[in-house]
From TrEMBL:
Name of the protein: PHD-type domain-containing protein
Lineage of the organism: Eukaryota, Metazoa, Chordata, Tunicata, Ascidiacea
Keywords: Metal-binding, Transcription, Transcription regulation, Zinc, Zinc-finger
One MF term in the entry's GO annotations: histone H3K4 methyltransferase activity
Species in which this protein is naturally found: Ciona savignyi (Pacific transparent sea squirt)
Bilayer-spanning residue ranges: none
Length: 203
């Protein structure tokens, strides 16, 4: 007898008494209902409830489904940034951009290689995530990275063109000549200007 576990939440029981396993004994009743509603991440296939605010999720502009930011290997910073991107940068899940077909092709090739064409064998979420991150970045991701790059450049240029920061950059105290005995010089922190408040109020 095999041990039944919900593939979505890991529960070993289908739910409270009276609840039944769903989807060929792969999901508990609650997850099965959520799955039917379409409340599952298209990458890891795990279900989420509408009240689930705990994990970071991003909505696909194409199919309107929600995807775990972890499943897209997005860092917390990138996740936060995505929310502040201009309207031209919209997130799309693998099914809605070109990655979906590439992913399917890779998975089918692998299945062929091990000759397990069993439809019921689903790839591990971890494996799907690994394949996805090895694919060329989707448009939304490259656009986002470009946006970050442009932002960084703007900040750097702003600092270079700012009078207060220029003074700091040109401060001769930072550069010291080598001591005459030829010993390598230790970095001297006291010689570096670090009055960043001046920068903050001047920008
Ligand atoms: Zn479950
Ligand atoms: Zn997921
Ligand atoms: Zn989508």
């Amino acid at each position: 007898m095999r041990c039944v576990r919900c593939q979505s939440c890991g529960a070993s029981k289908p739910g409270a008494s009276g609840c039944k396993w769903t989807h060929d004994f792969t999901m508990c009743q609650r997850c099965g209902d959520l799955y039917e509603k379409g409340n599952f991440c298209p990458i890891c296939q795990r279900c989420y409830s509408d009240e689930d605010y705990e994990c970071r999720m991003i909505q696909c502009a194409g199919c309107k489904r929600w995807v775990h930011s972890k499943c897209e290997s997005l860092s917390v910073e990138m996740y936060t940034l995505l929310a502040h991107m201009p309207n031209s940068v919209t997130y799309k899940c693998p099914d809605c951009d070109s990655r979906g077909s590439q992913l399917k092709q890779i998975l089918t090739e692998r299945a062929d290689a091990v000759e397990t064409l069993d439809e019921s064998i689903k790839p591990e979420p971890e494996e799907v995530r690994k394949i996805l991150s090895s694919l060329p970045p989707p448009t939304w991701k490259s656009l986002m990275e470009k946006e970050v790059q442009t932002g960084l450049e703007a900040v750097t240029m702003g600092l270079f063109h700012n009078r207060a920061t220029c003074c700091i950059l040109k401060n001769p105290g930072v550069v010291k000549s080598e001591p005459s005995d030829g010993k390598p010089m230790k970095p001297d922190d006291s010689a570096r200007p670090h009055d960043l408040f001046a920068v903050r109020f001047a920008v």
